[in-house]
Design the sequence.
């Protein structure tokens, strides 16, 4: 059976998923759209408008996908429900009606929102520092547990065409489809390992088909502008092959699969998911055709007694501005400009708690390494951590004002604006505290 | 003779909180032997010293001819709160590729 990838991030391209639905002979489509802090943002959205809180591109995707899913008998699993899966399920059904389709059956997965639970347990230690979560509670924006594949399985068992969730571990979205389709035991470790590895390789969409890979002349990728989304072919016994449709853009081979297999992995013998602890040290990748790679040898140990939850909290503001300098002594002028910005803010009584001064072209991506030669031109970037929006705006303004009131020869001084920061930290929750649940959306 | 990691391997970086992981994958067996022998955690920490506080841990995946480096305190506070332009550290694999090794072949 075949599972395709329909998205690997909230604002991923829609077109490759349409291509896959049209030509991929899929059984299921999985769209993974939640980064670590995305839910916190969507929670804010929901607090301002109780009907919102789902991934903003939900409507655009479903309008493009639903008719093709009907035509090719494809079911979908997605975490685009974000902070409000129930509202998202209503949107899915409404879009079905607007497209003139027979009613869409939609199951929402809830229970990942553990905000109240965390509030009742200020003693929970943060995984990052060991300190109790208590100090974050007054600033908490959201708390969501990473649910596992078992609740996806249960949601599909209702017969729903679309399963829409909030926070679920990314690869578990894929494993859940396999648990359902093949009626795999939730304790069969080799099968769980194969399903998680399938999900891990697919969850970042084009990162396994040639995205995040090209280096011209060294590692070339054909049709980089038209990268295809991948799919996995999985058998009942857990044999796994990653592929993409013939003659689609990009490349899918042992090199791209190896890079993605290790993406965001720490100890490869201990990749912890809500479903099992996977060991990929024995994995072998074998090219089976121009665009097909077989994946063998993943192992797993039983799941841990806890769910991980991510706590989003307000963490002040960041203000930022940029200005360019070129020609003789450009770097010295840029550094002088940065000093002027800081001093001007001090004179005005603003006090960012931390600055980052970067020279784009020299230090902005790989840090300040004094052995680097001075380039012909640089772009100064000043960013500051600020206690309030006013300070963050003032920082950007001070950079903008370098246009007239700084060193000679500034180019395109720009206030890049201020943004409110929602940071995240993690806690572990005993499994029995968390109650994942499937809700059918059948209104009207 | 000196070779760059770039000449014998490809790499990809990923983030989790304030930690970066950089996977380095050899193109062939000779490159794999060189990586395994010379690309030590100490050598990697040195290359990232102006970006990360460390420590650095190294994991070996012989079947993939790959080393996975986990570099702690590498993302200036982590994706969500970093002041850096590249908060995810997706450009950090390029630092690994600049490291020079001694090729005795």
Sequence:
């Amino acid at each position: 059976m075949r599972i395709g990838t329909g998205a690997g991030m909230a604002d991923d391209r829609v077109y490759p998923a349409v291509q896959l639905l049209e030509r991929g002979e899929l059984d299921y489509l999985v769209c993974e759209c939640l980064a670590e802090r995305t839910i916190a943002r969507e929670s804010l959205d929901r607090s301002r408008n109780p009907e919102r809180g789902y991934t903003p591109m939900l409507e655009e995707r479903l309008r493009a996908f639903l008719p093709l899913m009907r035509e090719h008998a494809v079911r979908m699993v997605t975490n685009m429900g974000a902070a409000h899966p129930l509202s998202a399920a209503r949107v899915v059904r409404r879009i079905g009606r607007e497209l003139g389709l027979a009613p869409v059956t939609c199951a929402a997965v809830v229970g990942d929102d553990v905000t109240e639970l965390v509030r009742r347990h200020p003693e929970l230690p943060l995984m990052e520092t060991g300190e109790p979560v208590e100090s974050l509670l007054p600033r908490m924006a959201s708390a969501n547990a990473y649910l596992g594949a078992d609740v996806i399985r249960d949601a599909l068992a209702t017969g729903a065409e679309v399963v829409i969730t909030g926070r679920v571990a990314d690869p578990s979205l894929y494993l859940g489809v396999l648990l359902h389709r093949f009626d795999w035991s939730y304790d069969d470790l080799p099968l769980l390992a194969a399903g998680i590895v399938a999900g891990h390789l697919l969850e970042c969409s084009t990162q396994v088909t040639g995205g995040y890979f090209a280096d011209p002349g060294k590692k070339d990728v054909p049709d980089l502008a038209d990268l295809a989304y991948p799919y996995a072919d999985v058998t009942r016994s857990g044999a796994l092959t990653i592929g993409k449709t013939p003659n689609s853009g990009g490349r899918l081979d042992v090199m791209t699969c190896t890079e993605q297999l290790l993406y965001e992995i720490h100890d490869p013998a201990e990749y912890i998911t809500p479903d099992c602890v996977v060991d990929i040290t024995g994995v072998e990748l074998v090219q089976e055709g121009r665009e097909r790679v077989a994946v063998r040898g993943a192992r797993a140990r039983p799941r841990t007694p806890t769910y991980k939850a991510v706590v989003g909290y307000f963490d002040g503001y960041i203000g930022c501005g940029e200005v360019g300098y070129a020609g003789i002594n450009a770097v010295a002028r840029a550094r002088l400009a940065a000093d002027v910005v800081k001093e001007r803010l001090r004179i005005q009584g603003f006090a960012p708690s931390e600055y980052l001064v970067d020279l784009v072209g020299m230090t902005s991506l790989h840090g300040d390494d004094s052995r680097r030669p001075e380039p012909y031109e640089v772009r100064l970037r000043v960013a500051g951590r600020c206690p309030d929006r006013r300070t963050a705006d003032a920082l950007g303004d001070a950079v903008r004002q370098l246009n007239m009131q700084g060193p000679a020869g500034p180019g395109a001084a720009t206030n890049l604006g201020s943004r409110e920061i929602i940071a995240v930290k993690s806690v572990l929750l005993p499994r029995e505290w968390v109650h994942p649940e499937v809700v059918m959306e059948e209104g009207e | 003779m000196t070779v760059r990691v770039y000449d014998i391997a490809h790499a990809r970086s990923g983030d989790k909180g304030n930690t970066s992981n950089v996977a380095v994958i050899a193109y062939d067996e000779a490159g794999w032997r060189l990586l395994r022998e010379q690309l030590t955690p100490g050598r990697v920490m040195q290359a990232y010293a102006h970006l990360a506080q460390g420590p650095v841990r190294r994991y070996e995946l012989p079947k993939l001819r790959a080393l996975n480096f986990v570099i702690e305190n590498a993302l200036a506070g982590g994706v969500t709160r970093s002041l850096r332009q590249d908060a995810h550290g997706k450009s950090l694999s390029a630092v690994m590729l600049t490291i020079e090794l001694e090729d005795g072949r």
About this structure: The first helix of chain A runs from residue 15 to 23.
